[in-house]
Amino acid sequence: MNQAQQRAEILVEALPYLREFYGKSIVIKFGGAAMIEEKLRLDFARDVVLLQYVGIKPVIVHGGGPQISRMLEELNIPTHFVDGHRFTDQASMDVVEMVLAGKINKEIVALINGQGGRAVGISGKDGGLARARLHQLRRRGKDGVEEEVSLGQVGTLDAGEINPALLTALESNSYVPVVAPIATGDDGVSLNINADTMAGAVASALRAEKLILLTDTPGVLIDGQTITGLSQEDVERHKADGAISGGMLPKVDCCVSALRHGVRRAHIVDGRVPHALLLEIFTNEGVGTLISNEFDRKRASATGKTGQEAGNQND
Fold it and tell me: Per the confidence metrics, is the pTM higher than 0.85?
């Protein structure tokens, strides 16, 4: 088969997905290597523009932890951690806001627009988009009693604390919202939000077709192998037996929460793969792990297999 025929076959394979996802919102958490390496950044921007031009509505939520750490160090602002979590005081929060909303956000907007897209940068503080509450870290003290520990100006939120009106207004006018994960607290103070948490809450509030988390892993790994598909039941079982642990736990919890709030499919995708978005959305194989309530029902009825054993990710 010559190259032209191969390209035609690729387009034909994508057609069912183009038809299915036309006019639907897809929320993408942009972070990790995909946000740092120049070639991957450019691939991501092109992917987003292509999604927009074929009638899909991408919404981007980005992180920026490494860039924040670097700026704090350059400004000689001391950082301390509580059980591995960064404590965010007022001086640190000023830097967080400057880096996320003032620098990274606008760089992503310029990158997408430079490829022919129509992106607009906002934070959760704009238009009353996100109102959060303080996140308290729960841990067991030396006396064995569970306690709550403050992380400073770190917040958390869920779907009920997102007002999607600004996002839907931008989408309806053919703009791509690019959201910095900063929210307003009850007293008007700025709060730093985990980007996965913000993306999950935004996807839930929009009842998005998909939530896609770009990561620096091949997906959910069990016994060293990427699991292409999981149901909620699979996730809970593998959490209980310890197969899903560590840094993957909050990501799968974010996905499961989004599914419970009306998101149809959630994906944990290897953002180190060039054009990971297009491969995950428009091909049968994908480049990560799909978590879906529909997964087991469709596979079990057709093959008798569990969600993690079954075939194509996007069916």
Answer: yes
